């Protein structure tokens, strides 16, 4: 594809623009290829973003140009795009609420890709059919390496997190952030919105106490050199994490890719856990969705 095109997706007419624009200059990856990736990956992406208000990170001039986060649905959005109004206390712009896009079908995926919304970020909770917010259904441990630590050190910490979660009866899944670190998730049920943060903080503090040379749980930059931060704060209902299968705005079109635990255990160099768009499509074709969550498990007290 090149230039512009009009396509029909799920019965919706979509005008795709600037398809030959290069969004990843280092490798010549174009907007057409971004749209193609998201179209092909949609069957496994959609279950992980459905009913979750999405925060977009848009790169209209590619990853080397200026970007912006977008919570409110663009004013030119088609009328069929589902939105949900969510309160945003503490907003940097002083807004009481925002009207978020909810990605509930392939047409919306393609529309967002055409906006150069390279990154999709979602919370750990869903909304109901009338927009009511549900309690969190996921707990996440965002493992962020402090230089010179890398994803290799994150893998060691991820295995420790896994041991704790399994002992607590949870079923942990793991994915790359698509950037520098790893993210460990588990499907949970909780009685209050604060419970996932409390649990994740407790695990982070426990592991920082057991292996203080490898793990920190506080955000202070000075404490993080050569260690892995277990960022438990990502469970705050006001925060989001990058969605599984989302592209990332790196030099190459890397993906926040679900991985197997044996790949985590066997990671020896950074490139072992770097997956680009084409590789992720091939992995899904051969292995299916490695991030398919099971039934929620009550968090232990």
Please, could you describe this protein's structure?
The chain has helices at 31-49, 106-114, 151-167, 195-210, 261-265, 277-287, and strands at 5-9, 12-16, 22-24, 29-30, 53-58, 68-70, 83-87, 97-102, 117-122, 138-145, 173-176, 182-189, 215-216, 228-231, 241-242, 258-259, 297-298. By secondary structure, it is an alpha+beta fold. The mean pLDDT is 96. The chain starts with a strand and ends with a strand. A hairpin with a 2-residue loop joins strand 1 (5-9) and strand 2. Helix content is 26%, strand content 24%. Strands 10, 11, 12, 13, 14, 16 and 17 form a 7-stranded mixed β-sheet that branches. Strands 5, 6, 7, 8, 9 and 15 form a 6-stranded antiparallel β-sheet that branches. A two-stranded antiparallel ribbon has the order 1-2. The chain is globular. The protein folds into 2 domains: 5-122, Alpha-Beta Complex (DNA primase, PRIM domain), CATH 3.90.920; 138-298, 2-Layer Sandwich (Alpha-Beta Plaits). It has 6 helices and 17 strands. Helix 1 (31-49) packs across helix 2 (106-114) and helix 1 (31-49) packs across helix 6 (277-287).
């Amino acid at each position: 594809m090149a230039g512009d095109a009009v396509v029909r997706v799920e019965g919706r007419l979509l005008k795709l623009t600037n398809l030959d624009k290069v969004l990843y200059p280092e490798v010549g990856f174009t907007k057409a290829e971004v749209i193609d990736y998201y179209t092909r990956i949609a069957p496994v992406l959609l279950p992980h973003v459905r009913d979750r208000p999405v925060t977009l990170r848009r790169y209209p001039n590619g990853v080397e140009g200026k970007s912006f986060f977008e919570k409110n649905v663009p004013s030119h959005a088609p009328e069929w795009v589902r939105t949900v109004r969510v309160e945003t206390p503490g907003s940097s712009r002083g807004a009481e609420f925002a009207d978020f896009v909810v990605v509930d079908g392939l047409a919306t995926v393609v529309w967002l890709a055409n906006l150069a919304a390279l990154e999709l970020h979602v919370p750990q909770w869903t909304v109901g059919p009338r927009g009511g917010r549900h309690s969190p259904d996921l707990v996440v441990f965002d493992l962020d390496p402090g230089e010179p630590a890398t994803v290799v050190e994150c893998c060691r910490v991820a295995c420790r997190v896994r041991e704790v979660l399994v002992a607590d009866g949870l079923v942990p899944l793991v994915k790359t952030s698509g950037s520098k670190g790893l993210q460990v998730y588990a499907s949970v049920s909780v009685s209050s919105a604060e419970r996932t943060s409390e649990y994740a903080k407790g695990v982070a503090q426990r592991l920082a106490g057991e292996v203080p040379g490898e793990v920190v749980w506080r955000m202070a930059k000075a404490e993080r050199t050569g260690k892995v931060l277990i960022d438990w704060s990502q469970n705050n209902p006001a925060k989001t994490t990058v969605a599984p299968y989302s592209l990332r705005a790196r030099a190459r079109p890397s993906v926040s890719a679900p991985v197997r635990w044996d790949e985590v255990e066997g990671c020896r160099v950074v490139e072992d856990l770097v997956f680009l768009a084409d590789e992720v499509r091939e992995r899904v074709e051969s292995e299916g969705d490695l991030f398919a969550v099971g039934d929620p498990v009550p968090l232990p007290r």
